[in-house]
Amino acid sequence: METRAANVRAEPKSPRISSVVFATFARQQSHLFPWVPVCLGAGIGLYFATSSEPTTWHLAGLAATLSALWLVAYGLGQHRASWVSVTLWVLTLVLAGTTVASLRAKAVAAPVLSYRYYGPIEGRIVSIDKSASEKMRLTLDHVRLSRVPPHRTPFRVRVSLHGDDIGITFAPGDTVLTTGHLGPPAGPVEPGGFDFQRHLWFQQLGALGYTRNPMLRLAPAGSAQGFSLWLYSFRLALSTAIKSRMSDEEGPFAAAIITGDRADLDPKLLDRLRASNLAHLLAISGLHMGLLTGAVFAVIRIGLSAVPQLALRLNLRKVAAVGALIAAVLYLGVSGANVATQRAFIMVTVMLLAICVERPALSLRAVAIAAFIVLIITPEALVGPGFQMSFAATTALVAVFAVIRDRGLFLILPKWLSGAAALLLSSFIAGAATAPYGAAHFNQVAQYGLLANLLSVPVMGLVVMPGALLAGCLAPLGLEGIGLWGMELGLAWILRVADLVSGLDGSTRAIVAPGPAVLPLVTLGGLMLCIWQGTGRLVGLVPVFVAFGLWHNVERPAVLISETGRLIGIVQNGERALNKPKGDGFSARVWLENDGDIADQAEAATRTGFSPNHIRTQVAGRKLVFNAANPEKIDIAEACATHDIVVLPRVETPLPEGCTGWTALDFSKGGAVAIYTTKAGLRYENSRSRQGNRLWVSHQRKRTQ
């Protein structure tokens, strides 16, 4: 009996599903670190998605408590993973991400102008660029505004110069004076749209405006202007020198990829680059930093290999890595060190340091370390297209080529063919990985982007960036023209490719804006496919397919009303008709782009349903009246009695009780309005309700000083 009982007890039991799942997760322990920035990013995303400002110290206290509990659970588990320790670990990182984002938002807090201002504007120039309308634009700090106390004066303001005579030639560090208009940053042009207020909050820009008067120089830049302004002045001088040595198209292109100065880029050229999916070549990001440091690494290593005494005594890989790192630091300073360049610099630095400590340079751990550092320093980068697209491409490339390396797939090809195959595959992978993010943020897909990149990226790597490096090395000898000549040839080729590809029929396809859950699901699925080990990674296809299903069935508002209340767009017969061909042009352009509509405002204004100023139409069977001008010509009581929705943007008083609609008072408090059609009727939403009670939300007051 005892023997039989022992045999019975020895029979294996069928494993429970939870045990199988955890065993699979436990096998991933050597690959867990890449999930650290993922969890941190989830917490940062949670901070930006919430509708109210969280209390930082409560978050920090909760994160510390969870961290302590994780240590206890980890210790009790004898340093082995368990469901409890893993869950606490994930929650701790998520809360840490939310805390980091909250601390960052409070650290950059600066006054935001809360009303329309007209009067003297004085400040020091810290940036010079051009607006979308090709007007010179100055960013000022050390701001002084008449009748505005210092504690309410914005830290920085940005002023566009609209006058025919702008007065003088400006330089960074100049103290200038003009009389102009300023106002708070505008909110999203539609509920759930791009939050311009949040974007400028992290730049500490508290007011935007324009002037039609000359800008006067009160004091020139002094010698004590600081290193940052000196470096900016050097960059502008370098940009001017480059443009003076090249043609009108190649010169501004070269200045953009070396110094980050895009002021003189032709808007039509930008359109051609976007239509051919080559606009990423303008951004000083991972591609440029990687090409430059790669060229420096190769030159140093090959050059030192030619000296036997050095080749036998030195670790040339480490020496070349240090030299490439120095070149990366110099490029970071010359290019302006914007957020995208900082991100690329951090990624390259991590990889070069990995070489110095004899670790794999191209690995998911290296990418994870770079992402972790970027998110800690600038958590707001998470919601921007630059961070999303660069890390999506890098993660996908590292993951796919790691599989190819481990399985020796390129070994079956001839050596001359493996390089071409690697180029083709890398372009395809990077394009596929970044396509959802590019389509979501820019509402278009370049259908021949792969062809354009195959014809252009090799030229950028083999001609343009080496030419820039050669020009920099020969500049002390006055022979920089040799390198600039090579750069110009390469850039001319790239621009011709852009012309060719953008001119093909159907080169671009307009894409409707996705809902808020789409990109997080795409990201989750992509990370599972790249980071997870074994066949279990295929589970990542599920959230990707769900995301594209949601994207395909996304609902656009039946009616959109701008923040000013003077532009309205109604979907009729599958197209959005606008009430006027001019005015509120930015809102009109974004609405049509988010609809996946290639029409411009003038064309959309010719669609049926509107007359210029007074509109009476129907939305889902509801009568709507709209009056953008001459409010005295409309009887408000009669309009409310005979119509279901009343829009009166020039009326400063609220509507009578029981009347559905908006006046100027409502728009100043709530911002842009969207109306959705549902089975239960119409659903109304404004942009401020979607933004919530956040630090960067400006509560504008309708008065001028």
Automatic annotation (TrEMBL):
Coiled-coil intervals, chain numbering: none
Q: Where, by residue number, does the polypeptide cross the bilayer? A: 32-50, 56-76, 83-103, 278-304, 316-334, 364-381, 387-404, 416-439, 445-465, 477-498, 510-531
Q: Where is the DUF4131 domain?
A: 55-213
Q: Which domain of life is it from?
A: Bacteria
Extract the Pfam families matched here.
Answer: Competence (PF03772), DUF4131 (PF13567)
Membrane association type: Multi-pass membrane protein
* One CC-aspect GO term: plasma membrane
Q: What is its main location?
A: membrane
Q: Please list the residue ranges annotated as the ComEC/Rec2-related protein domain.
A: 257-533
Q: Which InterPro entries match?
A: ComEC_N, Competence_DNA_uptake, DUF4131
Task: List where in the cell it is found.
Answer: Cell membrane
Could you tell me the keywords of this UniProt record? Answer: Cell membrane, Membrane, Transmembrane, Transmembrane helix
Q: Which PANTHER family match?
A: DNA INTERNALIZATION/COMPETENCE PROTEIN COMEC/REC2, RECOMBINATION PROTEIN 2
Q: What name is this protein filed under?
A: Competence protein ComEC
Question: What is the organism of origin for this protein?
Answer: Litoreibacter halocynthiae
